[in-house]
Amino acid sequence: MTIKDIAEKSGVSVSTVSRVLNDHPDVSEANRARVMAVVRELHYVPNSSARDLVRPQPDAIGLVVRGVGNPFYTAVIRAIEQAVRAAGYTLVLHQIHTEDNEVPAAASLARAKKLRGLILLGGCFDYTPERIAALDVPFVCCSFTNSFGTLERTAYSSVSIDDQAEARRAVAHLIERGHRRIAILLDSTCDHSISQLRYRGYCQALEEAGIPLDRELVEETSDFDMAAAYSGTARLLKRRPDLTGLFAISDSMAVAAMKALHDGGKRVPEDCSVIAIDGIDISAYMIPTLTTLIQPQEELGEKAVRLLLDLIEGTGENRQLRLQAALREGGSVRAV
Amino acid sequence: MTIKDIAEKSGVSVSTVSRVLNDHPDVSEANRARVMAVVRELHYVPNSSARDLVRPQPDAIGLVVRGVGNPFYTAVIRAIEQAVRAAGYTLVLHQIHTEDNEVPAAASLARAKKLRGLILLGGCFDYTPERIAALDVPFVCCSFTNSFGTLERTAYSSVSIDDQAEARRAVAHLIERGHRRIAILLDSTCDHSISQLRYRGYCQALEEAGIPLDRELVEETSDFDMAAAYSGTARLLKRRPDLTGLFAISDSMAVAAMKALHDGGKRVPEDCSVIAIDGIDISAYMIPTLTTLIQPQEELGEKAVRLLLDLIEGTGENRQLRLQAALREGGSVRAV
DNA sequence: TTGAAAGCGCTAACAT
DNA sequence: ATGTTAGCGCTTTCAA
After folding, report:
1. What structural domains and CATH numbers belong to chain B?
2. Could you read off the pLDDT of A130-165 as tens digits, one per residue?
3. Mind telling me how many Å the CA of A335 is from chain B's nearest CA?
4. Which of A150, A310, A330, B167 is the most buried (most CB within 10 A)?
5. What is the pLDDT of residue A125?
6. A45: which nucleotide lies closest, measuring CA to C1'?
């Protein structure tokens, strides 16, 4: 069923139908009513492809999220959606898997949907000029930045916490409370991503405290999921039952770790303290409440949108914004 | 930039470019290479609207998810996506908010994207013939069914657990272990949705055991989120500190409830047992592990796709499938 | 206030 | 193997 069918059935021209459908003023009430009646009767819905083809797209902004089920992103996405809508833009959301690369995906999206700009949530850290050449609209990296790439600072924008510094802070929090045998639970020490950055912060904190790095206390799970975190922690515990502190690079890994510690006979925090980074909702409901560095999820989203709009409207330049995480002292850490 | 630009720049016609882009065989290697070079150089990406307009859409199936951040859905969505892809169809995902109605959304989506069928995840329970008239493609309700509507059984398909029966089973599980003062934590007793059905099961279990319904033990939070569940449980506890069992209608509410019980001085399960329905990943990592009726999330998704494909291909009829939930005995329930 | 007609970018006959 | 061209369904001039 097309606009032509509606036109015929209501005895007017396609242009009149189009006018009615698009709320143009120059249509007689009689025709408007007649057309609407037919539209409703036939449950006609315009073909959006045809529409998009002719209409200069209403200003749309794309959001490419890498890593579908990550609970940390939900609040960020919500904030981005609101900010985008408040600014009078439309948000086009596109999810990709962790294995996929976000740059080609974003480029396709941008061209296909005639986007004005892009926000990348949870991407890689190793952009090079060649890789981003495909992007011909402004973009902002949200929750990560280009730590391992070769881009000039004038070539990209980002909003993120300082992952390394915050990780250092988390580990220092444990050290200050007397911990010396502190393990780290991470995805990988060399994934060119968040995991690697937070690992650096861990090493830095140890070094500053004069504690030698002990590879046995580094547990790489090769995955961000909870099952991997659980079994990783169990292995760690078997290897080094003398640990007194654990830094997990994400809240969800920390949750699984706490369970593994419990099942391994360690009480949290009496026998082992746990600290993490993220601040997902559910971590506040753990028993004990997880001590974690809360990323400002809303602010991350809002600032990313603000930065992008400035870029689009030509009133801003590429910038890298650093936000602070906030320490929530739950009950999962105590002094030894 | 259009296909025409590419054609000019590479000195061939638009059809040749189109052929190259669509991997048609009848193109000389020389031309193919030339065109691809230009495409890459200019980072050309075809306009998908124009493409979709012309091409008989690859068979696409729409998935309308109502209630964005619900963790229960993530595994179901993953299963649906896989099953759809395995069957050679494409999945078009559309998220809507809990306040929005999924039927018009689904109808628009179906017509706009020329969908072959629809899966509705987490919709309402009160469809009427008028309301679904707009849907002119087969659809399957996933994880819910039309308990409060007036549809004929031949007019719709669904795959879900028997919410009322499973709720009854959960509550009976507590009753069998000697509990008498059993509270229920729910969204609302009359939302025409999952909450209401599970409330019925609660009432039924009590009745069968000869336990009179005590309204003070019914806590309506008016929301599914954890903050509401936490404060609801706190109120409940103040009102009826003598309760020994709690049935939460979702895992995430149960998690918040366990925290509230803990903060209110009740140990789980020593002082109060907790049981729920859903089986989200994280509930296995609670301390104690949450006892819950696990919905077969993968199966829910796979069966929904199977049903829909049979409908689309004309080899099946509208059916309502009931799946079993599986009891996971965690540590949150004990006998009194 | 209306209708006719020119595209939007692309694919797929149909020619060559 | 390649080019020409007729639409796909819609919006939007431009005329009437």
Report:
1. 3-53 (1.10.260.40), 57-162+297-324 (3.40.50.2300), 164-295 (3.40.50.2300)
2. 888 778 789 999 999 888 888 899 999 999 999 999
3. 22
4. B167
5. 78
6. D9
